[in-house]
Amino acid sequence: MQKLLFFALVFLLFNCTEDKIETKHFVKVDINAEVNQNLPQLKNVSLKPLETQDESIFATIINVEYFKGKIYVLDGFSTKSLLAFSENGQFINKTRQGKGIGEMIKPFAFYIDKKEEVILVWDEVQSTMFTYDLDLKYISQKKSEIQYPMLLEFAKMDNNKIIARTHDLISEKQQEYVFKLYTSDFGEVENTYLEDFKYFHQIGLSKSISSNKNPYLISAFDYNIYQLVDNKLKSEFYFDFGKYKLVREELEDEKNGNKHRELLEQGKRVSSLHTIQLSQNYLSFKVFYKLEPIYYLQSLNQDNLYRLNDYFENGMLPKCDIQSLVNGDTFLAFVNPDDLIAFQEKTGQKLFEGEINSNQNPFILTFSL
């Protein structure tokens, strides 16, 4: 069975402001709330298969982006390539692996420059930034003149400065994960953010930057969603999970290094926020509870917080994972083939009439609120 293995599904967080939370929106969340039967109606629900052939199949998803009718999937561990599909699921192209011109060894992060209409891909092994057109045809490459830290994610801002989440190895055990603001050529670091905690174990975080004029950021160590404005970081949202929040002491307990993991597995704690997407009227993210993902949609104009999982429970959507935005409030999600089979058998709804194979690529699901 094909599994969607999302980069960095490690369930870690840190509440750095237990006593006083300074935020624009303070949102209380009941992680054990009953299924909501009164949900906003979904619109424009569409399901299409991603083409599956030897050239187009992938397994490990680091990031997915949509732009101008194309879907880009970064598979950094299996095929070690960036793949492009049409919005209807047809395979277009993918980058090549190797050491030659235009070839990458381990692409680890990418960003779509919507102004220039090019795609920037970072190869962490070669310390090189590659540039491709929207059909993934090679344009150029530039090797770093300085020693970059590992770039886990990056995005260009309107002023051409680059905000990046980095991974610095401080010692054999101690690792630092911070956001850094670079000059447009990655030549200098102008500022650093969310660096107050040094973590001693492997840590991961999926899609921690939502790029727009003033980017939204999430840290692996707390429950805030921050906004970067004028080079300053401010909390826009704080999600209060009450007694289910992990605290610093539970992460810093070196004698019981897996204590926080056990608390998460037992359902005594909730993970940090993951995978933020900012639409016109909604902010989407997910957390992990009892090792299962729970997806939320926070209204930007009202105080409403909706669980996407309630749409699953009510038979309104198959289980899916939001990956990107198409436009406005239209979200793009991936559906595992086995989850689609289970949904159609349970509800009797035939979102897809053809044969479904467990080993094929996921299905594209788009929907609007």
Structure in words:
By secondary structure, the chain is mainly beta. The chain has one domain (5-368): 6 Propeller (Neuraminidase). It contains 4 helices and 29 strands. The strands form 8 sheets. It has a 5-stranded mixed beta sheet, with no helix packed on it. Strands 3-29-28-27 form a 4-stranded antiparallel beta sheet. A hairpin with a 4-residue loop joins strand 11 and strand 12 (118-123). The radius of gyration is 20 Å and the shape is globular. The two termini are 31 Å apart. The model is unreliable at 1-19 (pLDDT under 50).
List keywords for this structure.
5-stranded mixed sheet, 369 residues, 4-stranded antiparallel sheet, globular, Neuraminidase
Strand content: 35-45%
Largest sheet features: 5 strands, mixed
- Specify the CATH class: Mainly Beta
Q: What spatial form do the alpha-carbon principal axes imply?
A: globular
| Fraction of helical residues | under 10%
The chain-level structural class is mainly beta
Average pLDDT, all residues: 86
* Physical arrangement of strands within the biggest beta sheet: 2-22-21-20-19
SSE arrangement:
Elements: E1 5-6, E2 25-28, E3 43-49, E4 60-61, E5 63-67, E6 70-75, E7 81-86, E8 91-94, E9 96-97, E10 103-104, E11 107-113, E12 118-123, E13 128-132, E14 138-143, E15 150-156, E16 162-169, E17 175-182, E18 189-193, E19 209-210, E20 216-218, E21 224-229, E22 232-240, H1 248-252, H2 259-265, E23 274-278, E24 282-289, E25 292-299, E26 305-307, H3 308-313, E27 321-327, E28 330-335, H4 337-347, E29 363-368
Parallel strand pairs: 1-4, 2-22, 9-10
Antiparallel strand pairs: 3-29, 5-6, 6-7, 7-8, 11-12, 12-13, 13-14, 15-16, 16-17, 17-18, 19-20, 20-21, 21-22, 23-24, 24-25, 25-26, 27-28, 28-29
